[in-house]
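Supplementary Methods S3. Input chains for the assembly prediction are listed below.
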Amino acid sequence: MNMGNVMTDILIKNGRVIDPANKIDKVCDVWIEQEKVAGVGVFDGTAKQSIDATGLIVCPGLIDMHVHLREPGEEWKEDIESGSRSAIAGGITSICTMPNTEPCIDHAGIVLQVIARAKEIGLCNLHPIGAVSRNLKGKELTEMRELSRSGAVAFSDDGKPIWHAGVMRKALEYSSSFDYMIIQHAEETQLTEGGAINEGWVSTQLGVAGMPVEGEDSMIARDIMLTRRVDARYHVAHISSKGAVEQVRLAQKEGLKVTTEAAPHHFALTEDEVLNFNADAKMSPPLRTEEDRLAVVEGLRDGTIGVIATDHAPHHEDDKRCGLSCAAFGIVGLETMLPISLDLERAGVLSMSDLIAKMTSNPAALLNLPEGSMSEGSIADICIFDPTKTWTLDRGKLFSKGRNTPWHGRTMTGQVQYTLKDGRVVFEKGEIHD
Amino acid sequence: MPKPLFGLKHIFGIADLSREQIMSLVNLGDDFIDINTRSVKKDPTLRGRTVINLFFENSTRTRTSFEIAGKRLSADVINISASTSATKKGETLLDTGQTLAAMQPHVLVIRHSVAGTCEFLSEYLDNTALINAGDGSHEHPTQILTDLLTLKHNMGDISGKTMTIVGDISHSRVARSHLLAAKIMGYNVRLVAPKTLLPAFVERYGCEVFYDLDAALKGTDILYMLRVQTERLTTNCCFPSIREYHETYGLNMKRLKAAGDHCMVMHPGPMNRGVEIATDVADSMKSLILEQVEHGVAIRMAALTALCGGATEA
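Predicted structure tokens for the full assembly:
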């Protein structure tokens, strides 16, 4: 693909280009005209703007299919603007946002509103996930058809489970009639109520009420049975336990449309993080045992877990500074997804291409998103990162409003150097170009 | 600021104490017993020191014990009973802690229903020593030091002795602190409870676990009965009835005799007579319960002295 003497807008030169959707992994150039990818190969010509990507990895802009922004309703925790900035700082150019805002995303008007707001900011694609039930009450279904037409890409009551088995069955039946996917926060709250961390030796030592792993496992077992009956698309959010991974693996072997995602904290950390009562390591589902962590890693390796997603959950520090058992659940994750995930490649669990697929082409395929590849003619959303650069995470310097990260002060390996959105450099070496 | 003794900055829990620190505190407490039995119960050790008792949970004996301990050592003692509101309790906790610390007390004694309260507050309070007077189901170090002092008086060296703790282990900070102390001080712990009242993997403390009290009696040197929260039993399905609890896990004379003549009875209080302990047992010669209360004052004197009774640094 030698173009010869042509002029292009942006040339990304000599990077290791990894585009899993097109099975590309080679050192070459990527060039961009207007907002689109014009070519991937060897470019011979001139460019208005040139980025030397020697030693860097050039991949499609990352997709995070599990994000909580707090707009509308709780903008002091995060808003669409701060969330967009945080995303692109992490190399993420598309986010799917969970509906537990205030009001929640259970009507088309709110779907349209959050999409419009993200477009106005123009830094990151926002794909809302619609509520399964009205007002997230778990009783009546939302107007999924209309939500979908307005731009909702899947349905979930995340933050809470769709707890009632009868409602879950109906939700799976109705959604699958139109090939929509239900994303379940799998937690049998009758077992986990009052708990703050994983139930086990750590919760026993701290005297803090625990959330047993059976809370997650039992709801997934129930849901898989319903999915089998209904032939629905069922996606387990933030999988965290060995039992859960095993059940999803078996369901997939059986041919059920059961998929799942894992959050970096669940494959990188264990319950030992809370031994010092660290509320910034408290989330739901909680950090579990090393055995569970290894099962999640194995699930990522063998493909049972197709997607890495952060469950980015910003909170105000007041909601975290009150002791472990009172603190809010959730941690921020957009700016740490890539470096933490790169540990999987460094540990030999996944090839770089397979790892990037879990943050690009896989979630795109699952949700039918147009993003996630660098095919010629596709929108130029691109992440350029240095896989070996080390840096220290300072929560005070996050672009997110949330400061709730368990990785504060720790060394990260791998850093985003450039993020391009719609063919424009929106993030460059620590700076955002608004 | 006064120089702390025994290398102690705070007293959060038994988990943070060494054998030497435990022995030092118990021995210092032993020295203080005498003051409490004098006719003039006053000593100048803590003159000029300010101690604030900040209690977010109801407490009679622990709070009074700290108050008397401070006053008998001439400290200025202020008691605050703060109620935890259901919402935003954390904000109140941190703000209350910082507000009181700004008044420059030497020691804050804190009881709170949230485990890790002292660890949490210590991140924000620089110049105030903290004593954990019970944090949720986590730890209650001064109770355990008290028990060790009482045991020292009644059994001498307790290494190799067997303490059988009976009752709601899951929610007991006293049980957790004893499990930790047992390892450090070399005594054995048996736990007796139904599975509904035992936390996950509790055997990892290195203790024996029994579901049947009668099976645990033989070889027991100390029967340590825990208070049963009667409301917890029935509403959380931990136990069907008080009647059945007493029948199964209550300590009566017959069981005490089965344990043997050497066996002593302890209870951190307050007791539910007729539930975890029969009245005749509670009032028997084998009961160390009131001695525990008496020694509690001495141990709190030792704890306060350790944290703020040293020579004043320039």
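Chain B has a mean pLDDT of 93. Residues 14-139+293-308 of chain B form a domain with the Rossmann fold fold (CATH 3.40.50.1370).
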